[in-house]
Write a structure and sequence with these properties.
Helices cover about 80% and strands about 0% of the residues. The chain is an all-alpha fold. The chain has one domain (about 5-139). Helix 1 packs across helix 4 (about 75-80), helix 5 packs antiparallel against helix 7 (about 115-139) and helix 6 crosses helix 7. The protein is globular and about 55 Å long.
Length: about 140
């Protein structure tokens, strides 16, 4: 039997989770909207279009990849939500950032274990891009 305390704890945990996600998703979404409105996102998209097209992605998707690589998964999700992407494109980005995300934080953590952070970061980025190419080719 589910007790009143269980419901209260579940509700509290749910609200805390929503608040943590909102603190990331709302600001990132606003920044993306601002970049779109000012034309900066279009400039970035045009500049990165050749590279991103190899992955089956539009140029502006580079922002989601970079944000995922250097910040975290939730920030990348916020960028993805702000863009008009297909299911295939979202899958490619998701695989890429699933393999390589939060590079600054995770490099700091892995350096404590004796792993050299820079080579590990380049390895993760390389594997991520190869996986993105593979997913784009396979789908």
């Amino acid at each position: 039997m589910i007790t009143k305390e269980t419901w209260i704890n579940g509700l509290r945990n749910g609200i805390e989770t929503i608040w943590e996600l909102a603190k990331v998703v709302i600001p990132v979404t606003l920044v993306i909207a601002l970049l779109k409105e000012t034309g900066w996102l279009a400039l970035l998209a045009d500049w990165l279009e050749p590279l991103m097209s190899l992955l089956g992605l539009p140029g502006e998707a580079a922002l989601a990849v970079v944000v995922g690589y250097f910040l975290n998964l939730y920030s990348a999700i916020a960028v993805i939500l702000a863009l008009d992407l297909t299911a295939k494109q979202i899958t490619v980005i998701s695989v890429m950032i699933g393999l390589c995300h939060s590079l600054f934080m995770e490099s700091a953590v892995t350096s404590k274990t004796g792993v050299k952070p820079l080579p590990m970061a380049f390895l993760r980025i390389g594997i991520s891009v190869l996986a993105g190419l593979g997913v784009n080719w396979a789908l």
